[in-house]
Amino acid sequence: MYQTKIAGLGKYVPENVVTNDDLSKLMDTNDEWITERTGIKERRHIKEGDGNTTAVMGVKAAKIAIERSGISKDDIDLIVFATLSPDYYFPGCGVQVQEMLEIDTCPALDVRNQCSGFIYAVSVADQFIKTGMYKNVLVIGSENHSGGLDFTDRGRSVSVIFGDGAGAAVLTRSDHNGQGILSTHLHSEGKHALELSLKGPSTNHWVPQIIEENPQGDDIPYYPYMNGQFVFKNAIQRFSEVINEALQSNGLGVADINLLVPHQANLRISQFIQQKFKLKDEQVFNNIQKYGNTTAASIPIALTEAWEEGKVKEGDIVVLAAFGSGFTWGSAILKW
Ligand code: ACO
In this structure, is residue 92 part of a structural domain? Predict the structure, then answer.
């Protein structure tokens, strides 16, 4: 059995900064409410004409990750793309990336697991590398949320949270035994599927059907719905469980964690986890203040930033953990 390590990381966020004050010009909200409830001060939004899409941002992040990995794009054996905001209903973004990177005919697949998407994608990549089927896998998390949010008063509790951006990692076979991904842990609980969901477009919510059934032009199925407090409660419970699971599976304790990179859902969730596990500030990486919640992109963006800032070094134990729509949740534990 082989082991998987991260060979290169990259991130891309659109240049357009949208502050809480900017949002307060569009809807009835304010900096104090958003900061207090979520910790978010600003986020990035794609701007019309900047050429960005979910796949395009994914490619920008991937190019950096590939360059840093030292692995040729032509040696990539598989592309795994995690997103809840693909450019097209079908096909997925994975094949778009393959085309834009001019990679010949390697397999490409999309993962639809929302905030846990990157962890699921890493786990998929890890299985292929561990068994020896593939050596190099490009994993991307990318989201264009701003194109699909309701920036009126009606959507304010959801639309202030999310931001656009992409992160990527090149995963490869580890040369040193013990270095790389130690284990991944995945869970889901479909009974809560609609507590955080976007119903349309889908085969149940085609545009003509909606127009016919909602002559007033009710577009609610086309905007995300979130039962915020219910999501919050489940998130803190599942985050805790899946971090413990990662540690216990490897005979490790909380004191062994050098860096926890939680999915950037809400700063209050990260702070709750930090307090619960009695982690010091330097053991937890957060950047939601700058980017908002970028769902599948949040962990690779945060991990890239942590690495760029020298917050991870060889031999460190790094825990990645996420919870999100589905509900789905998961963790990955690595020795750097
Ligand atoms: N600005 C100002 N007021 C607002 C806003 C806003 N943007 N949004 C809602 N309000 C108002 C509500 O209308 C309500 O007013 P009322 O009391 O007069 O009825 C009041 O603020 C409180 O609303 P709640 O929805 O109860 O606010 P809550 O304290 O639950 O905070 C939030 C909402 C931030 C979404 C919170 O529930 C939360 O963090 N949930 C966790 C879910 C999460 O993190 N989701 C991220 C995506 S999922 C994931 O990644 C895990």
Answer: yes
Specify the DSSP class assigned to residue 142.
Answer: E
pLDDT band at 110 (very low <50, low <70, confident <90, very high): very high
- The reply to whether 259 and 300 lie within a common domain is yes
Q: Which of 232, 272, 286, 293 to mutate to test ligand 1, by most ligand atoms within 8 A of the CB atom?
A: 232
Dihedral angle of Cα 166, 172, 175, 181, to the nearest 10 degrees: 60
Tens-digit pLDDT profile for residues 176-193: 778 999 999 999 999 999
Which residue has a Cα nearest atom 10 of ligand 1?
Answer: 157
Region of 134 please: left (phi>0), alpha (psi -120 to 50) or beta. Answer: beta
- Which amino acid appears at position 163 of this protein? G
For residue 265, give the 3-state DSSP assignment.
coil
Atom of ligand 1 nearest to the CA of 324: 51
Q: Identify the domain containing residue 87 by its residue range.
A: 4-173
* ipTM score for this prediction: 0.92
Of residues 331 and 221, the one with the higher pLDDT is 331
Residues 153 and 186 in one domain: no
pLDDT over 80 (residue 205): no
Residues 159, 189, single domain; the answer is no
Describe the strand order of the beta sheet including 4-12 as a list of residue ranges.
Answer: 4-12, 165-173, 136-143, 78-82, 108-111
What CATH number did the domain enclosing 283 receive? 3.40.47.10
User: What does pTM read for this prediction?
Assistant: 0.95
Q: Looking at the chain, how many residues does it have?
A: 336
Predicted confidence (pLDDT) at residue 211 exceeds the cutoff of 60: no
332 Cα to the center of ligand 1, angstroms: 29
